[in-house]
Design brief:
Strand content: under 5%
Radius of gyration: 28 Å
Shape: globular
Largest sheet: 5 strands, mixed
Number of strands: 5
Distance between the termini: 90 Å
Structural class: mainly alpha
Length: 659
Amino acid sequence: MKLPQRYRQLITMLPILLLALLLRAWSLGWGLPSVYEEAFPLKVAWTMWHFGSPQAVDLNPHFFNYPSLTIYLHFITQGLLFLAMKLGGLIDTGVAFSARYLTDPTPLYLTGRTVSLLFGVGTVWLTWSVGRVAVSRLSPLIAAALLAVNTYHISRCNLIEVDVPLTFFVMLGLGFSLRLLGRADIRNCILTGLAIGLAVSTKYTGAILLLPAGAAFAYAFRRPARPRYWYPLLTLLVAGAVFLMTSPYTLLDAAAFREHLQNERQHMQLGHFGLVSTSSWSYYISILGNKILGWPALILALAGMIISCSGRRRSAFVVLTIFTAPYLIVISSMEMHAERYLLPLIPVLLIFAAAAIGAVRERIGKTRLPHRARIVMVAGLCLLCLWPAATSFPAYVQKVGTDTRNQAAQWITANIEAGSLLVVEQYGPELFSPQVTLKLRPETAQKVLELMEGEPGHHVLKIPMFQVMPARSGVFYDMTLYDDADYIITVGSIRSRYEADPSLFRQQLAFYRELEETCPLAAEFKAGKGGGSTISIYRNPEQPTPFQKRQPSLPPRMVAVANGISTGSEELFYFEYGTIFEFSGSRELAIECYDLALQYPILRPGVFKNIVRRRSHCTLATGRREETLRYLAAVARQAPSPEVRIWIEGLGRQIVALR
């Protein structure tokens, strides 16, 4: 008995899905236990749990640069991981779980990346499913196979971010929108609204899905069996309800939502430090052709879009085009541009490319060419589309397998004495810093030190960097701030950004010149075929004895405020410096650093509380109880909020009770 074509394709899809899974799982653990990705959804979800703290779980993410769906997904997976590790005897309490995260976050990141992997494999499936509605015969399988082996999509599935889940929900929304073309009933209206709501709750640009859904309804209303006039409204209401259910604090914490959304809008308008100076249109077309799809697939996609919008199934392709074109217009209208913004377009463009291949197949099928010649022509087009993946995947595997940051971290561990003070630019090697324990609860700090026993720890001070208005970092590029440093570590990807505009970044470039003239190069790890950029490690010849073994004499001087406006990072800079002095036993210098931190405007309550807590601890540890109480009374008057003032007053009462 011959199986229907649908089931034959379904059976063929299974090896494609398996291939997609294997390719994305191949490098899932890249970089670990070091972490070189932003992973905002994971980090925000982690703060909501308060593992190792008596604070209750907080379902408000207090972060609205992105909506909350992916944050809640990682929140759930972290809870499941905690239960699994506890049942497996790997941990016994939230304190132990928190300490594991701080010393080796591998389980947490593997779990988080698995979420991205599953969304990515699911997108391959949806590409076939959507393609079946839009194109016929082998074309859906071609589109799914091209996505399965697409190196760029594979690489993003190894990261914890919102764009891979967004792509999944975009394809889900497009699939349900195409269903409306055939049957615009209540069920399909609700499913379409559900998918749109989930997409918007993943990333705000998911709202563009309303356009293809509207186009599908427009086609449906032109047919004899018209849907009810209120069906589009039902879809919109379902989308809104799903968004609010999965991102509830956009309404419950509306003030913070508006503030964060405004900041994100400003970021999109001002751009990102290090972006290439080109128009967004040319940037995205170049990236699609040179890196993501390859020029053959991109040209075929454009041809397929034109051909298909006038073919037998033009309504389906019009719906897909009404998502593709506006989405590209929206992301191209922003000064901020990034490769990952193109992810939702990749499956759709591959469907268009597969449609073009299908059209060629049908056209040559009507000619007198031999059957073998027809197969060769179609296979040749498929190979042209596959060639970029075939050539780029080995390079990707090599890139994630060797990273200059890991090489530098290994060299530092082996060659730089524990207790040394390292000043490091952003995006440098990840190193364990013992002073981090001062920011933790005592029981968590103790557990962290137990887990790191025998591991050399280095004091790490990071030089601030700013993605928006990056020239602000100039005040921190001053060698006199780092007289106590044993080593200064620079990062090629940061330095090259400053070197691209010498007139704007004079201070940063002067810092590099002085560093090269006064400090010998101890080691350098050059960027090559692997990951990471060039890491340069300079030794301070003025400090022959490691920081931990000597007695620093002076605290760093106060950072100058350019034009009377602080950068917004001075307080964190001096707080970090203070924890380094405190951990090394120089409490008086730590106190001076904490006092310096409070001379700058501090709008973040958590930072303010940390500074006050550590400063009070230092004075109490030296037996100056009355001075501590006077300090708390004075600092309460400059608290950034009534809640922080109440917290300070409570801290004072605890000290009084110690009599």
